[in-house]
Amino acid sequence: MSKPLKQIHLAAHFPGVNNTTVWSDPAAGSQIEFSSFAHVARTAERAKFDFIFLAEGLRLREQGGEIYDLDVVGRPDTFTVLAALAAVTDRLGLAGTINSTFNEPYEVARQFASLDHLSGGRAAWNVVTSWDAFTGENFRRGGFLAQEDRYERARQFLDAARVLFASWRGDEIAADKESGVFLTDADAGRFAHRVAQFDIRGRFNVPRSPQGRPVIFQAGDSEEGREFAASSADAIFTRHGTLEAGRAFYADVKGRLAKYGRAADELKILPGVTYVLGGTDAEAQEKARAIRRMQVSGQTAVKFLEQLWNRDLSDHDPDGPLPAVDPLVGENLVAKGRASVRMFRDPLATAAEWRALAEAKKLTTRELIIEVTGRQTFIGSPETVAHALNEFVQTDASDGFILVPHLTPSGLDDFADTVVPLLQERGVFRTEYEGSTLREHLGLSPVDPARETAAVTASSTATVPTADTVTRTGRARA
């Protein structure tokens, strides 16, 4: 008996907080006008996508005091945009990236619970951390956390938010009435959570939302990120865009679920991918080359080079060879505050690889940077791209994709009109929505409040009022 075809999950990433956007294209539109957000969302919903995804930029990226030429000025607040999109869509999920390093659990939980209510159960939270003092300067606490510390804060932050989401226990009234000890309206939302990062207690004032809590996303490929996703997330946003790397990542993360008492289908793996479509494969390849040159200007190439070399290379010719000197290993001097050099675990080894690649292919600095930062994951005719997407999912390299177009707001249109119908013909993508909530779109089971509370309590000293901690007068015991 042949293996049943897996259904592909698709989502749309609104371009902006990334290095894929092409400002110089005549078709490029506004990044901040609501009409752009609405266009992308309506296109995604027309194509029956699972959700639209907003990244987060808490500070404009800069280096040497200069803003990156591909960054976005004036990015609107995530919750404001998603709430507005809830009013112009009916089924599309609404996913927002909200930082766990510079926010507080009560505020974030309240905002997401409200969004889930306003949208009828379509909210999702992408839990991320921030690791640099550069962004921290915008916040009172400032500074930055070491990687192991920021993931521990993220875990405790998410646990605290789950306590808040689970604190509205009205669904347990019937079960508690027999003992004469039951929850009354006066007990709704009572919570207590004491861990290293948070010591909070009070009342959550948003009733249980349609999904119970938002769908939880996590973005990160590090060891800490993989473990965090396996223990707590419903989906993981990854960067692995090749079959080999995708299969290895898929097997690794799915293999971690069992120790947390989770089944393989309880975590969806969704790489962020780019694409270029053309009438033929050759046409698409030529178009992709032109796009990459627009995405990586000479200035961008030098700035990226500085992140590895950890030196001021402002006088370097991007159309010439790589620098003759080696990267400076040690304290980050050029991208101060961002610690961008940390992206390269071994700068000297990476520089050697780049030099060998440049020499073998006779590449200039700019051409080399285009080569090593290439972002078009799928290039070809609609038929070619549809086949490649389906191969990824059917061979367990992913459960679907978060598509990152290079144009705003029209970049998703061709994909929706040409690739989606081909996937539908293959029987691997829906032709109509079967549910109304994002959890249903993703094929996730309903949230079980008791299981949520047990999972949090197992990893902390969190407590949520239940029948045995509530008196007949409805007061939670201290």
Automatic annotation (TrEMBL):
Residues 27-395 form the Luciferase-like domain. Pfam families: Bac_luciferase. The keyword Flavoprotein applies. InterPro entries: Diverse_substr_monoxygenases, Luciferase-like_dom, Luciferase-like_sf, NTA_MOA. The keyword Oxidoreductase applies. GO terms for molecular function: monooxygenase activity. Its EC number is 1.14.-.-. SUPFAM superfamilies: Bacterial luciferase-like (SSF51679). Keywords: Flavoprotein, FMN, Monooxygenase, Oxidoreductase. NCBIfam families: FMN_nitrolo. PANTHER family: ALKANESULFONATE MONOOXYGENASE-RELATED, C2H2 FINGER DOMAIN TRANSCRIPTION FACTOR (EUROFUNG)-RELATED. Belongs to the NtaA/SnaA/DszA monooxygenase family. This is NtaA/DmoA family FMN-dependent monooxygenase. The lineage of its organism: Bacteria, Bacillati, Actinomycetota, Actinomycetes, Kitasatosporales.
